[in-house]
What does this fold into?
Amino acid sequence: MNDDICFKSASELLELYRGKALSPVEVTRGCLERISALDGKLNAWCLVDEEAAIASARTSEDRWMKGQPKGLVDGIPTAIKDLILTRGWPTLRGSRTVDKDQSWGDDAPCVARLREHGAVLIGKTTTPEFGWKGVTDSPLTGVTRNPWNVNMTPGGSSGGSAAAVASGMAALAIGTDGGGSIRIPCGFTGLFGIKPTFGRVPAWPLSPFGTVAHVGPMTRTVTDSALMLGVISQPDYRDWYALPETYRDYRIGLETGVNGLRIAYSRDLGYVSVDSDIAALVDGAVRIFEDLGAHVEEVDPGFDDPWECFTRTWYAGAANLAGSLSAEQRELLDPGLDEIMHLGAALSLEEYMESQNERGALGSRMKNFHQDFDLLLTPSLPIPAFAAGQEVPEHMESKRWSSWTPFTFPFNLTGQPAASVPCGLTPSGLPVGLQIVADKYNEALVLQASHAFESACPAPMPDLEKI
It folds into this structure.
């Protein structure tokens, strides 16, 4: 294994390709060797297509040798979460209910854009069944583990993508985020990930969980996510929720910094109990923003815990999914998913509509909040990573994952851009994330602030010798 190759950022790799100092074939082989060596312990991948990856890398190498790259990510090893349609590969969604033997002739919009820009697609990464929970295990693929400590969860539902990128098995990864599913695993594995404004990255088909589910990048650096977002946010006619076509290179302006920005810091949103080690690290991260010239004020955004609003919305999505399954297929499901399907089916129309009204009020509240503050900072998660293979930590009374993700799901309800940037390690050596939230449509500001913090506090990568 070559750590220097496998842990290089996509931006560094592109410069090396441009100077003919490194080949996409070398890098792809390095990633495949890393997968062969480590994935038996991490279980980040449910499909690896070595032949297709090498063939793609060779054609990319030919283009670079001629000085004619195909696009912005030509030759970069990339992982696709197995909720996302990818032409020629089955998308089983972590479920034994999906028939592998059917036509797989479509690329989802984000995959189509990555192909158009020359990305080397390595394979599909693991997900809990249909992406329903905040950890990554499923009846189909088993338990995915954290590269920082294989006894711990990498989070979810994009845990396979997180484990792959954090261990150097790929440079870029696609994740989805319906309640924190990019930010949770990035927080637990020391990566950067951003949930863009809903509609910024076209999605097709729409998630069964509806308009809380976003698509976004997961990377080792902010610059790589900015690069990737510029690619995958390009339009696709199949998504009628997609925002109007306005191509932007999100790398432009990253160096602007945070001097003069009005930043709110809420340690607990007014109602969350936060682990003391995490609170201390996030407090320290916030002081760095002050050192960088931002005007920081400790203030809560002023909304009550929207847990019930979110769970009703989420459970209704699960009931929507259940409608497409036969009784025999229901027997094959993760029991937790089947349980929330029943809870969603029991909701009344009045209860569902009440939750949607509450969702609208929350969105309005945050629009008003951002009249006074450019950004909101919170912990990404109130706890560090816990034991793999369970939905909640042993000490928690609630048995549902949303009980320990109180900082992430509110901003799925509002559709705002929100990112997790690594801000240190706990005394036990587990990563901690800082969440950065902006008003709708302002991904550029989230990336700008994240880059300023990352430049001041670069994140370490896990020690792979301990896996």
Observations:
- The domain at 3-466 is CATH 3.90.1300.10 (Amidase signature (AS) enzymes).
- The mean pLDDT is 97.
- DSSP finds 15 helices and 13 strands in the chain.
